[in-house]
Amino acid sequence: SKNWIRIQYRYKRYFNMGKITKRQQQRIKYFLKEKAERKNKQELIHQDGQNKFIEKHLPYIRKLAPNLDQILIVSSFVTPPVKPGLVDRLLVLAEVESIKPIICFNKTDLLEDPEEAKEIVSVYRNIGYATFASSVKNNESIEEIHELLKGKRTALAGHSGVGKSSLLNAMAPQLKLRVNEVSRSTNKGQHTTTKIKIFTLDKKTQVIDLPGVKLVDFVDIHRDEARFYFREFLQYADQCKFLSLIHISEPTRL
Questions:
Q1: Of 67, 82, 155, 247, which alpha carbon lies 20 to 30 A from 196's?
Q2: How many distinct helices (H) and strands (E) make up the chain?
Q3: CB atoms closer than 10 angstroms to residue 9
């Protein structure tokens, strides 16, 4: 379309320049978030020689996406507590890049009520995601998760302190990764992993362990496109009176 040609022209014009102004940065972000063909925007995001402005807004997973088979999203029930917002954002990134997501809610051994694990896991399983409640201490779901990783190239993502290194040690003891305790004062992890590391579990299996993720920025997703990346909404989308499906400004009573 003419609109997309205009976006491409201006995008390339700005990114072929050495340094770009803040005003130009704002325009680029606006162009990328316009309603345009999602496939074409994705190609621009992943083209070679990307400008540093866009690179710093791209999560590690999206930078690695062309070489990944799947992503293992790890959260924990306790210390630190479950943060569904990050899990959901990582799921959206997986949908954007057509990468298979696997969800692991770790540290079930610290739960006072085991039913809490079943409740959270069932939410994501009912949507259609491979979801597990795990415990390294009790060897719960470790083998099942390991089986899904075999023969694949998998990104490993989640907040610091959720037990990513412990999970890898349980699946591949030869790695002998260092594990830190969660800070008592902040109830947060202490960043055992500070840069991307690639671990080989066997000849055909690799895991890319990412640094503790705090911010996931959707550079090129227009808000009206969000509905395409939530599986649970797709079957109801055609029946909704509000075509954008944003649900932030319509009246409460119809």
A1: 82
A2: 10, 6
A3: 11
Q: In what order do the strands lie in the sheet with 197-202?
A: 130-133, 100-106, 70-76, 153-157, 205-209, 197-202
pLDDT exceeds 90 at position 106 = yes
**Cβ(8)–Cβ(44) below 8 Å:** yes
Query: Would the pLDDT of 185 be above 50?
Result: no
- Residues 61, 95: Cα–Cα separation, whole Å: 12
Q: Which residue has the tokens 């550079």?
A: 219
Q: 């690799």: which residue's tokens?
A: 206
User: pLDDT tens-digit profile of 13-27?
Assistant: 555 555 677 887 777
- Position 180 confidence tier, pLDDT thresholds 50, 70, 90: low
How far is the C-alpha of 119 from the C-alpha of 108, rounded, in Å?
12
